[in-house]
Each structure stands twice: as C-alpha cells, then as structure tokens.
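Data deposition worksheet. Section B asks for the primary sequence of the deposited chain exactly as it was used as input, without tags or linkers unless they were present during the calculation. Section C holds the resulting structure in token form. Section D is free text for depositor observations; keep each observation to a single sentence. Incomplete worksheets are returned to the depositor.
Section A, Depositor: J.P.
Section B:
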Amino acid sequence: MAEAEEAAGVAEAEGLQERLKAYEGRVAVASGVGKDPVNAPMIRHWCEAMGDTNPAYRGPDAVAPPTMLQAWTMGGLSGHTGRPGRTGRSEAYDELLALLDGAGYTSVVATDCEQEYLRPLKPGHVVTFDAVIESVSERKTTKLGTGHFVTTRMDVRADGELAGTHRFRILKYAPAAKRTPVKRPRPVINRDNAGFWEGVAAHRLLIQRCAACARPRFPWLPGCNACGSQEWHAVEASGSGTVFSYVVMHHPPFPAFDPPYAVGLVELAEGVRMVSNVVGVPHDKVRIGMPVRLEFLRVDEELELPVFRAAAEGGEF
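Section C:
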C-alpha cells in the first residue's frame, strides 16, 4: 500500500511538472506602456531616497539611474489594468499562479532579480515593455518549504529601442512545518563591507568618509560616488538620527520575523542614510521626522544587528 501511494504521488508530481513546463515561453505581459515617460522629478525622488548624488542624474543632459529600469514599468497601487494600451500581467501568468496555488504552493516570496543595461534612459523617453515566463523549475526543497521557482524576463524599450532586460524570480511554496526556531538570514559580508560588520561586533556604527572630498557615505562602497576617489577613512557615527521614510511590513510572513514591524530609512546626524528596524514604539506610531537613537539588538547567539529606538510618543529615549 505504501509503495502504491508513493508511486501515485510521484506520478502526480510529474504530471504537475509537465503542466507547469507548458507555460514556459508564454507571454507574461504584452505591449505594456509605462504610466509616465522618463522624467526628472521621479529621477530626483529616487536619487534622494537612495542618497545618490552622482551629477550624471541632474541637469539638462541627465540620464536616469540604470537601477530604475523596472521602476518605469511598474503600475503602482492602481496597476495597469483598464488603461488602453497599458496592460498588466497576462491570463497565462495568472493561470500559472492559480495552478501552483491549487497544488498547495500558496505562499510566495521574491528571491532575486537580474538586470542588464543596454542604453541610458533619458527624460522624455516613452517606456514600453513585454515579458515572458522564462522558466518554471522542478520542485525544490528550501528552508522556507517545498515549491517551484518561476522566472520572468522583461524586455524594456525606450522609444521602441531595447534599453535593458529585467529577470525576476519568485518562489511559490508550501511552508515547511515549524520544528525548530529559524534564525534570521545572515548578512552578506565581503571585502567591501567587512569593516562595517567588524564595527557592529564592537558596538560601533562605522561609516566611510572620502579622503579626497570629505563626503560621508553609507552603505560602504569601494569608491566615492561624488568624486570617484578610492581613498577613505572609517568614522564612527554618533548614533543619533531621524526617520526619513519608513514602511510597515505585513506580508509575506517569513520565518524569524514577526510582522507587522517597521523598517525605517534613517538619516543619521552625519548626513548619510541607512535602512534598519525602528523599535521602541508600536509599528503604527512610527512617523517621518521622529528622532531615533542607535542600539544593538542580539537576534540570536551568533548575530547582533544595529537598530534604531524611537522615543515613545511624548517621552524620552
């Protein structure tokens, strides 16, 4: 009996995989048109949020930051649906997601994206785009659970000429049964940011200061984005700042995190901004301009992270 049930399960999985594979190459988005032409105000907002002061993104000959490629295709809260010539995702893509939902893979998480830049986008360019379902993986087992990776490839055009490609990958999965507490994902430490994490281990928040133009910067980079110099010094930040912007995370639920919680873009007294959790007040009490103070939060026996504690409403730190 057990062998028969196992054989039936294998056959069912193979049948599902065959149906999933049939969606590869099908249209995910057809003849999409950006809601707005490439424009200077959106470029400015992006650069202010990212703290990017590169002069190439300002003035009469400005170009858009390459990493904004997907931003010009996004439908925002109202989406693209119902606007003639401005389509959203296709029926085929919705059918694929419904098929995965019906097979029990009801949770979703974005895993990664890849972008290739072929020409600069400039104010006035009209952005159009098409996307295909590039691949649906075989069933994979991850720490989150078992499921399938779905990859779409979007071709982005400026005034009809290919400007870049954007590959976006999600995991549709059935959550694994919780057996033991799941640790937070580990930060990626490399030669460019190792000094920052060494500072965190010593309860010091280190930023960089360019040795040539004295401009502070964060996150850590190998060169100055203002003057290009590769010479710099590590400087300890005071730890005081204000909430420049924030979001409240509700979905998707993710092991080791307990939504809802506030993630802030904090402007430090030194003039740089960093992303971290805002703690000390309920998530719905976080406000732009709220003063915050650095502290270090131990999340497990191996990992401490810098977070920012807000004063309770009307209170002190």
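Section D:
Residues 2-21 form the longest helix (20 residues).
Residues 147 and 173 are 4 Å apart (CA to CA).
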